[in-house]
């Protein structure tokens, strides 16, 4: 029998390749090309427009690091919005914080939610939680219609191509600022410093114009290009580096720790120079 | 014209793949299969027994992080030994420390040195420096014959297959302890936590039996499996986490910073559990 290997070109000249047991689903949705596959090394995986979105084996890194850094920075996050994130992983992590009364998911592509529930049940399982409201629709529009509503907003988007292109604009960050309460915090994934340095520099510059506290942190995600992923945090009042030790409490994680909460902001020199 | 792509299988079911402009050299040496290739994304690269050793584009991470963490931990490193490291990158970084009077390279495979000088000149260039002594020979034997001689020993080896198999044994770490002065420090690369967790656990346990201060730190190396690389440090007296701020001085780096010197020891939870 021939072997099936899936290769994601992370640049024109470099990629990762993984052995596929079987394809679970492929579909051109209204917004993007969706693929689910069972791989030997990483378990079930979700791809959108040919890019790895998440895998059962390493999903915990991204989801924990998006959620817990801002949530432990805010002293009392009650109302949280996730833009994108249809696989449900960020929602699952948010719900580990007992202060959160409501977590809203604004995902543009209902098919991502539908097939994540089927093929990534450990990731999507909490989407049915009563503290969660799922809105299938344009996150950009949802932000535009919200005012002083959220304590924390997390942008769990694809790259700035396809449906996510509006989510990497200064107008969007201004909308986020308006949608946040006066002490709100937001975080957005912003790709990797090896191949997308210009994007990171731009996001940092744009967010800095709007949020008094702007920072960059990283996490190791092996199935993402270069293995080093960046997150931009914009905060109106609370500094993630100033969280007092007594404010951390135990939650079940596999990556995040209270030491990493601060250490993840210590950047390699060539990354620091993008901020 | 057909495209040439080099794929390194990092496990049986996962790998990285890169476009090759041209092969520069291939040779079965006395010890291993040596390949040099010019790649589109990473510049010239060295492979040993099919594994990526270094690339012009990302070599600075590994070489800086092997060298500067122990060298800034030791208050006055004068005599330094590198076991392996025939490409010369660790030597180049060591020489940035003015306290170092002599840096010895014990590389088993003279061909690695020879072809690194030709195809990786920015990495190997300092091997001719008068402060450097190059010994082509078995690092294990060199260690066995040394006593109370070195301030810092760095093990820049391949994986524990082929010529490096002896370098991952308790006997080797005991030899290193003997070869170090009474306040000496050693560091060894010890692979990645995603695919080689058992190896890291074993190295940490073995080193702990011999060195009172044993620690693990990480760095992001995109061309290495998982992008997250581990280093074990064993120290007789000085703790890398206790270096006073005034002890750091400016050196030219692209990855290492004094903040990262400490932050790199803050481990993801699943990695912490291997120590």
TrEMBL record, chains A, B:
<feature type="binding site">
    <location>
        <position position="163"/>
    </location>
    <ligand>
        <name>S-methyl-5'-thioadenosine</name>
    </ligand>
</feature>
<dbReference type="InterPro" id="IPR029063">
    <property type="entry name" value="SAM-dependent_MTases_sf"/>
</dbReference>
<dbReference type="InterPro" id="IPR030373">
    <property type="entry name" value="PABS_CS"/>
</dbReference>
<dbReference type="InterPro" id="IPR001045">
    <property type="entry name" value="Spermi_synthase"/>
</dbReference>
<feature type="binding site">
    <location>
        <begin position="138"/>
        <end position="139"/>
    </location>
    <ligand>
        <name>S-methyl-5'-thioadenosine</name>
    </ligand>
</feature>
<keyword id="KW-0808">Transferase</keyword>
<feature type="binding site">
    <location>
        <position position="107"/>
    </location>
    <ligand>
        <name>S-methyl-5'-thioadenosine</name>
    </ligand>
</feature>
<feature type="binding site">
    <location>
        <position position="32"/>
    </location>
    <ligand>
        <name>S-methyl-5'-thioadenosine</name>
    </ligand>
</feature>
<dbReference type="GO" id="GO:0005829">
    <property type="term" value="C:cytosol"/>
</dbReference>
<dbReference type="InterPro" id="IPR037163">
    <property type="entry name" value="Spermidine_synt_N_sf"/>
</dbReference>
<protein>
    <recommendedName>
        <fullName>Polyamine aminopropyltransferase</fullName>
        <ecNumber>2.5.1.16</ecNumber>
    </recommendedName>
</protein>
<dbReference type="InterPro" id="IPR030374">
    <property type="entry name" value="PABS"/>
</dbReference>
<comment type="similarity">
    <text>Belongs to the spermidine/spermine synthase family.</text>
</comment>
<keyword id="KW-0620">Polyamine biosynthesis</keyword>
<dbReference type="Pfam" id="PF17284">
    <property type="entry name" value="Spermine_synt_N"/>
</dbReference>
<keyword id="KW-0745">Spermidine biosynthesis</keyword>
<feature type="binding site">
    <location>
        <position position="63"/>
    </location>
    <ligand>
        <name>spermidine</name>
    </ligand>
</feature>
<feature type="binding site">
    <location>
        <position position="87"/>
    </location>
    <ligand>
        <name>spermidine</name>
    </ligand>
</feature>
<feature type="binding site">
    <location>
        <begin position="156"/>
        <end position="159"/>
    </location>
    <ligand>
        <name>spermidine</name>
    </ligand>
</feature>
<dbReference type="GO" id="GO:0004766">
    <property type="term" value="F:spermidine synthase activity"/>
</dbReference>
<keyword id="KW-0963">Cytoplasm</keyword>
<dbReference type="InterPro" id="IPR035246">
    <property type="entry name" value="Spermidine_synt_N"/>
</dbReference>
<comment type="pathway">
    <text>Amine and polyamine biosynthesis; spermidine biosynthesis; spermidine from putrescine: step 1/1.</text>
</comment>
<dbReference type="Pfam" id="PF01564">
    <property type="entry name" value="Spermine_synth"/>
</dbReference>
<comment type="function">
    <text>Catalyzes the irreversible transfer of a propylamine group from the amino donor S-adenosylmethioninamine (decarboxy-AdoMet) to putrescine (1,4-diaminobutane) to yield spermidine.</text>
</comment>
<feature type="active site" description="Proton acceptor">
    <location>
        <position position="156"/>
    </location>
</feature>
<feature type="domain" description="PABS">
    <location>
        <begin position="3"/>
        <end position="236"/>
    </location>
</feature>
<comment type="subunit">
    <text>Homodimer or homotetramer.</text>
</comment>
<dbReference type="GO" id="GO:0008295">
    <property type="term" value="P:spermidine biosynthetic process"/>
</dbReference>
């Amino acid at each position: 029998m021939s072997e099936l290997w899936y290769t994601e070109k992370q640049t024109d000249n470099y990629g990762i390749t993984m052995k596929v047991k079987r394809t679970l689903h492929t579909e051109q949705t209204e917004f993007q090309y969706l693929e689910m596959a069972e791989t030997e090394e990483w378990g079930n995986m979700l791809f959108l427009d040919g890019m790895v979105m998440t895998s059962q084996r390493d999903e915990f890194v991204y989801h924990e690091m998006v959620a817990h850094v801002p949530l432990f920075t805010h002293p009392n996050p009650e109302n949280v919005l996730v833009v994108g994130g249809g696989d449900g992983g960020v929602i699952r992590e948010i719900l580990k914080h007992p202060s959160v009364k409501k977590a809203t998911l604004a995902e543009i592509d209902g098919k991502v939610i539908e097939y994540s529930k089927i093929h990534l049940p450990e990731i999507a399982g909490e989407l049915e939680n009563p503290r969660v409201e799922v809105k299938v629709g344009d996150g950009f529009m949802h932000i535009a219609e919200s005012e002083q509503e959220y304590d924390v907003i997390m942008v769990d988007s694809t790259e700035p191509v396809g449906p996510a292109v509006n989510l990497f604009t200064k107008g969007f960050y201004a909308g986020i600022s308006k949608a946040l309460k006066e002490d709100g915090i937001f975080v957005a994934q912003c790709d990797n410093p090896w191949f997308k340095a210009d994007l990171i520099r731009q996001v940092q510059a744009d967010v800095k114009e709007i949020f008094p506290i702007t920072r960059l942190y990283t996490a190791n995600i092996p199935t993402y290009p270069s293995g080093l992923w960046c997150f931009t945090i914009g905060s109106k009042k609370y500094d993630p580096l100033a969280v007092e030790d007594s404010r951390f409490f135990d939650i079940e994680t596999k990556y995040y720790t209270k030491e990493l909460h601060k250490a993840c902001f210590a950047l390699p020199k060539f990354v620091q120079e993008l901020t």
